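User: Design a sequence. Structure:
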């Protein structure tokens, strides 16, 4: 089946520097793909290249099997929602949402039913005449989304769609977005630096850094089996250290972590697998103990080795105090050897 969007060998250069370098990306119709990476990783440049706002120095872009590498942005059939929403402050809500339709040559009277339907869809019923400057951040985000959807794009591109909002609002809106994408059968590419947002939104996760794709797959698969130490750190894991394979066993700064096969360059230990144990082989000093509702996150300084993160589920406020000594053990099932 022909993918809705296919980028092959995509490269964007700024001067002599490649902001994205030989990226291959395919997105199926009705698929939601999240591109996850830190600041400066090239993820926003990649999105702008898909939109046609950054020209490709190399590579091709096809949409529904048609080469759009040189097609100007307004003829690609894609919608782009910017992180800062980029609403027009001098226009009311209705005029902002109708902007793309006006660019398509539709008369205001013909556009009004679609604008009204979109405002209803994003939860802004009766707000067409409001000034966008009078809206909250969440309401402005909804206007920007409705404006992106108005021209019925074949691909919707979202640049940090929830990045400017506070966390409780982001958590609520991410569920609404996911439901909306499904109901409208949208094809979506969203870039974010937030792992939780990417996991909640996406059918498929693409981890990028240095302008390259490091790993791609279903979010649960990437989370469960990061391929490299770099990917593990980008996913938010902190218990990552260099390691080696000696006589079929993983040797790490935290000691022998059990058997493994294949080349080993590093090791990931999930914090849920680090446990207090009076007979544990690892001794350390608690650096911090942070209450987080159902969990307490404890950071333990280990002499001669990287610090360990420890999660105590259901611990309430009963985590060990900073400055106290603890002994730890690492459950073998929490260990993931990583290749170079």
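Assistant: Done.
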């Amino acid at each position: 089946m022909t993918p809705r969007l296919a980028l092959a060998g995509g490269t964007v250069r700024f001067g002599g520097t490649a902001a994205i370098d030989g990226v291959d990306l395919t997105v199926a119709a009705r698929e939601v793909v999240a591109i996850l990476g830190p600041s400066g990783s090239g993820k926003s440049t990649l999105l702008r290249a898909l939109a046609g706002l950054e020209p490709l120095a190399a590579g091709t872009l096809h949409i529904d099997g048609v080469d759009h590498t040189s097609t100007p942005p307004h003829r690609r059939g894609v919608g782009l929602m910017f992180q800062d929403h980029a609403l027009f402050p001098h226009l009311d809500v209705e005029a902002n949402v109708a902007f793309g339709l006006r660019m398509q040559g539709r008369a205001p009277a013909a556009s009004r039913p679609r604008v009204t339907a979109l405002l209803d869809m994003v939860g802004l019923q009766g707000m067409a005449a409001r000034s966008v400057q009078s809206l909250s951040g969440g309401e402005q985000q909804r206007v920007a989304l409705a404006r992106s959807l108005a021209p019925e794009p074949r691909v919707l591109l979202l640049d940090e769609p929830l990045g400017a909002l506070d966390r409780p609002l982001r958590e609520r809106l991410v569920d609404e977005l996911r439901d909306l994408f499904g109901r409208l059968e949208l094809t979506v590419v969203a870039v974010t630096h937030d792992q939780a947002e990417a996991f909640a939104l996406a059918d498929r996760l693409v981890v990028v850094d240095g302008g390259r794709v490091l790993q791609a797959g279903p979010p649960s698969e990437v989370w469960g089996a990061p391929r490299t130490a770099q990917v593990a750190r980008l996913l938010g894991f902190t218990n990552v250290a260099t390691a080696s394979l000696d006589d079929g066993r993983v040797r790490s700064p935290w000691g022998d972590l059990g058997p493994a096969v294949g080349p080993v360059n590093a090791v990931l230990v999930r914090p849920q697998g680090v446990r207090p144990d009076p007979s544990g082989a690892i001794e350390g000093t608690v650096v911090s103990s942070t209450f987080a509702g159902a969990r307490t996150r404890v950071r333990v300084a280990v002499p001669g080795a990287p610090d360990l993160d420890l999660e105590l589920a259901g611990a309430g406020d009963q985590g060990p105090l900073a400055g106290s000594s603890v002994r730890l053990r690492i459950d073998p099932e929490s260990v993931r050897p990583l290749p170079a």
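The first helix runs from residue 43 to 51. The mean pLDDT is 90.
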